[in-house]
Design brief:
Layout (H helix, E strand, L loop, with lengths): L2 E6 L5 H12 L4 E6 L7 H11 L8 E5 L10 E7 L3 E7 L5 H7 L1 E7 L12 H14 L8 E4 L11 E3 L2 E9 L5 E6 H7 L5 E4 L2 E4 L12 E5 L4 E6 L4 H5 L6 E5 L1
Parallel strand pairs: 1-2, 1-3, 3-5
Antiparallel strand pairs: 4-5, 4-6, 6-7, 8-9, 9-10, 9-15, 10-14, 11-12, 11-15, 13-14
Helix pairs in contact: 1-4, 2-3
Length: 257
Amino acid sequence: MPIITLLTDFRDFYPAAMKAVILTIAPQTNIVDITHGIPPQNIKWGAAALSFTAPSFPDNTVHIAVVDPGVGSERRSLAIRATGKKTQYLAGPDNGLLIPAAKTIGSFEVFEIFSRSTEKPSPTFHGRDIFAPVGAKLSLGEDIHEMGVPITDFIELPTKAPAISNNILTGEIIFIDSFGNIITNIPEEIAFKFVNYGETVFLEDRPLPFVRTYTDVNSGKPLLLIGSHGFLEISLNRANARDYFNIDTEDIIQITK
């Protein structure tokens, strides 16, 4: 049974409209909603959520992701084949949304795709009229080479690479989950070069003990850990770190010793 995942910032009835198209083309599809709760137009959050989840899916899963503030403009539509331990496909806009997930899966090829429908796609809903049909056809085994032309000048999101300098660990916030946990782009291999379990570091002069799990500190207390996604996470035990630190989604963070 084909598997297609959906990730959008749509909420409302729009995901259902995409599912209707997918099921019309590929009725046996198992559709999995990764999330439709990405903050509106927040490409970076969408890219992070997709990269955290896509690699866990089975071989030949198709991921359709739409966080698309440029819909209807000259921005291109993409399909990607990513190959590592398994092969997976991605479809979505050329705005950086898909690339982190493709890199996480393995090596990848990117194709600019074109709608072959006799009906003109809506300039405001490419998720339904372009990406859903492409994803459905990919799930049925249609050759990605028949859908478009390979490109190498795809868009990537600007990022600040994590770095350690003068006892300061600098990184970027890439996601804040519904619990208020602040997820950074600092991978565990860099984190462990800066701090070890049991040590305490600081964010905005507030102590952050580096622990293995949330309950290693008292309720309501801040902490630092490696999340299940493999990146450094700033959290509170049974409380909201975003509110506690008053951190914005676009902030650069600096953790000090």
